[in-house]
Amino acid sequence: MSKDARLEALRRVPELSQFPDAGLRALLMFFDEVVVPAGVAIAVEGRLCHEYVVVASGELEVCRKGRATRLGPGESYGWRAMEGRLRHDATVVTMSPARVLVMGHAQFRAVEGLAPSSVHSVGSSAA
Question: Which residues neighbour 47 within 8 Å (Cβ) at sequence distance 6 or greater?
């Protein structure tokens, strides 16, 4: 995936929408790009959250309290859990091969200091 495509994926995520383009470009180095086959659990309800995941392509299923929803390109999972150092509130499984941008715990903490103040008040619909 090109740098421009990764940048566009970040640009679409509500939690990162307050970053100017220069800020988003700076964030790129904090994300790893991973291709995940269909059927892989990338988060398990009740386990400690260690990654913030942005969907660049593909589809993920989020199962929370018996209800399933889908995440697609431009959506993310793990923001609130990473911010609050919480456990996953859902199980997330890839429904198709997916290309995701992943930020680990250490990178997330480093980025918190760079974020515009309005980013900290943004909550994702998916923890």
Answer: 87, 88
Is residue 127 a part of any domain in this protein? no
Question: pTM of the entire structure?
Answer: 0.86
- Which CATH number do you get for residue 75? 2.60.120.10
| Structural domain of 8 | 3-113
Q: Taking the CA of residue 107 as centre, how many other CA atoms within 13 Å lie in the half-sphere pointing to its CB? A: 16
- In 3D, which of 87, 91, 104 has the Cα closest to residue 30? 104
**Separation between Cα atoms, residue 29 and residue 103, nearest integer Å:** 9
* Number of domains within the chain: 1
Q: Is residue 95 part of a domain?
A: yes
Highest mean pLDDT among 2-16, 17-31, 51-65, 109-123: 51-65
